[in-house]
Structure formats: C-alpha cells, structure tokens
Write a structure and sequence with these properties.
This protein is of the alpha/beta class. 43% of the residues lie in helices and 12% in strands. The protein binds S-adenosyl-L-homocysteine. Residues 58-59, 96, 98-99, 126, 128, 148-149, 151, 191, 220, 222-223, 225, 273, 309-310 line the site of S-adenosyl-L-homocysteine.
C-alpha cells in the first residue's frame, strides 16, 4: 500500500498539467493491473424502488420531489432481473432503492434467499440506512455486500445536504463499520464537486476510504437536479470559491486514480454518473484511471427514467442486452476482459484464453 500524505493527495487533486495528469492515470492503471488484474467485473443493477422517505438535498428521489412518478418493482420482476443477470454472465446483482419503508425486512430477506438458492450470483444491497437487525437478517439470508456511500467526509457539509432521519441514529461511517462487523463486503464512496465541497475534504475522503479499509469504493460526479434544493441553487453551502472542487470529469478521474493508488485492491466502479457527463468516453476513461468494475443496468426500461437520482442518466433507453453488449465491447477495446466470477475483493481472475493453456500444461506435466 502506497502511503500518500494529505499534502500529496491535495497536490494530485489540484494538478492540472496534462503531462502530470497522464502520469497519475498511468500510475493508477499499473497499480490496478498489479493488484486486481485485467478483469472488469460486471455488476447488474436493479433499481427496485424509487420511493424514498428522506430529504437529501442533492437527490431527485427525495420525498419532497412531487414531480416524480414513483414505482416499486414486484418480487417477480426482481427475480426475473436476477435470472437475466445470470443468463448474461454477470457475477453479481445490486439491488438499490430509495429509503422505502415498504421494502420490509422480511420481503427483502425472502428475495435475497431466493436469489442465493436459485443462482450463483453474489447479492449486493444498497437500500440506504437500515437498522442493524435488518442488515443482520439479510446477511443471514445470504446477502454478500452492501453499498452505502458516505457522500462526503466533511461532517458539516454532510449534515447540511443530508438531513438525518433520527438525530440519534448512527452516521454512515458508523454503519459501514457495522456492515464489516456483520461480515458484509462494505462499499462506501462520495460524490465529487458537491457545492460547498473543498479539495481538502476530497483528500480526507480518500484517507477515510483507507481508514475504513473499504472493499468497494464508488466515486462519481455530483450532477445538479433542478427539483432539489442543492440543484436549484436554493441551498448554497458557504465556501471560498478557490477551495470549491469542480464537478467535472477530470476531477473524477483524479479522485479515481488517487483512490486506486491508496486502496490498491478495492473494487472501484467506473460509474454511470461519469458516463452521464461524458457519454462517449466517460466509462472507458474511468477504467483507464484506476476503475475495475462497471454496473450495467438491468432495471426494466419502463422504470428506468423514473429512478431519477440525477437528470439525463446515461443508458436510459437501452435494453439489458444492449447494455451488456456495449459494455463488453468497451472492455475488450481496452484490451481487458469481463470477469466471470463474483468478483469479490481479493480475487484475481485470469483471461479465459489462458485457462486451456494452463490445463494442457498441467496434462503435459502429469504425463
Ligand atoms: N438510498 C440509497 C441509494 C441512493 S442512490 C442510499 O442513500 O444509499 C445511490 C447514490 O447516488 C447516492 O449514494 C449518491 O452518491 C448518488 N447520487 C444521488 N444524487 C446524486 C446527484 N444529484 N448527482 C450524482 N450522484 C447522486
């Protein structure tokens, strides 16, 4: 593990000279290759409900957004998506939703249990801040991973953009620790370029990823949503303009690269939000700056545009099969290959073409 100080991280985050940035991305890419290899893991995303009880100032799903038609997938629809994930050769499904109280602990438990029994998929949940008993129940049913971004390590900014539901409840960092204790692979992460977010706090975010020893780290640009207080400009967290981190793609690539260097064997996706701000190259450039995971969308197309955490999301109309083909094409064009296993942290996959060579070598050795 490379030890970068906060000053080193800040220098990297403020870097703008093209040659230096190229060096940074190349360094991150070689750390990625050495520690997690050339496999790019495919995690099929199922956005199971857009109902949300929270009032996050950045997110289009916030309860106060009355402009949005809400949906909740049926159990059968979710199970069909999981079967499709397996048919498409994905190793994992991620079930994500707003904080929807109608997704009861027992209902989710049954779905997790069914997917684990009927498929060989890893199951990742991303259902927001849920009670420890619920997290425990789902873990016992077989859930493998949980994603809960802490959004920013700046506590004051976090409180301003993420009003808490119960003042005494655990914060997201504490919940990530709980998830690890329960035996989940835990995923955290942040948005980049939130109004009020400084370069220094981004450096702290990376140090927090390392301190928590996260298994998965999601990093994407903040994208303003006009139906939210932060996106409409109604809420303006105070900051000196020279300290404000931009929400552009370069800032995201720098965050990805530095995070890869500091957390060499974490699973790091090239996110849909990144593909949204650069539809042609975003996903590939993320994979070249340290990322090793992509999250093809499996949500039925009729629901996709309703899961509007931010506007103009990439790949909104593509069928699951199109998403699959497009992403595999992008992976191959980088000279990498799509992972075939569940892609847990710490597994290093070989390309399929090497496997027959190895087995024939073994046969020769035994002969
Ligand atoms: N309710 C779950 C899932 C939320 S959506 C939870 O809160 O964990 C998943 C992620 O989308 C969030 O964690 C956040 O980082 C991201 N997101 C939400 N609004 C966004 C916006 N306006 N721009 C970019 N990313 C956003």
């Amino acid at each position: 593990m490379t030890v970068l100080s906060k000053a080193d991280l800040l220098e990297g985050l403020r870097e703008s000279r093209p040659a230096r940035l190229q060096e940074l991305y190349e360094r991150a890419d070689s750390v990625r290759k050495e520690h997690v290899g050339d496999a790019v893991h495919l995690r099929g995303l199922i956005e199971i409900s857009s109902h949300c009880a929270r009032q996050c100032m950045y997110c289009g799903l916030r309860a106060a957004n009355r402009d949005l038609e809400r949906y909740r997938m049926t159990r059968e629809e979710i199970l069909n998506c999981a079967l499709q994930a397996e048919r498409l050769g994905y190793g994992t499904v991620v079930m994500q939703a707003g904080e929807d109280d109608r997704l009861t602990a027992e209902w989710i438990e049954e779905i997790v249990w069914w997917i684990k029994r009927e498929t060989s998929l890893a199951v990742t949940l991303s259902l927001g801040e849920r009670r420890q008993e619920e997290l425990q129940l789902w873990r016992t049913a077989g859930a493998d991973r949980y994603l809960l971004r802490f959004e920013t390590s700046d506590k004051k900014l976090f409180r301003a953009i993420h009003p808490s539901r119960s003042p005494a409840g655990p914060d997201r960092i504490a919940l990530l620790r709980t998830l690890k204790t329960l035996g989940y692979e835990a995923g955290g992460g942040v948005m980049v370029g939130i109004p009020g977010q400084s370069f220094a706090s981004l450096a702290d975010d990376i140090l927090t990823f390392r301190a928590l020893d996260l298994d998965m780290i999601g990093i994407g640009p903040y994208i303003g949503h006009a139906s939210t207080p932060l996106g409409s400009g109604a809420l303006r967290p105070p900051i000196d303009p020279s300290e404000q981190a931009p929400s552009n793609e370069e800032m995201v690539y720098k965050m990805l690269a530095l995070t890869r260097i500091v957390c060499p064997n974490a699973n790091i996706p090239s996110t849909t939000a990144l593909a949204t701000i650069n539809k042609v190259h975003g996903r590939k450039l993320g994979l070249k700056a340290g990322a090793n995971v992509v999250m093809p969308n499996l949500t039925p197309v009729k629901y996709r545009r309703l899961y509007q955490i931010y506007p103009a999301k990439a790949c909104i109309d593509e069928s699951a099969t199109d998403c699959n083909q497009c992403l595999r094409g992008q992976i191959h064009s980088l000279g990498r290959f799509a992972g075939r296993g569940t892609g847990a942290r710490g597994t290093l996959e070989m390309p399929a073409s090497i496997v027959p060579d190895l087995s024939s070598a073994l046969v020769q050795l035994q002969a």
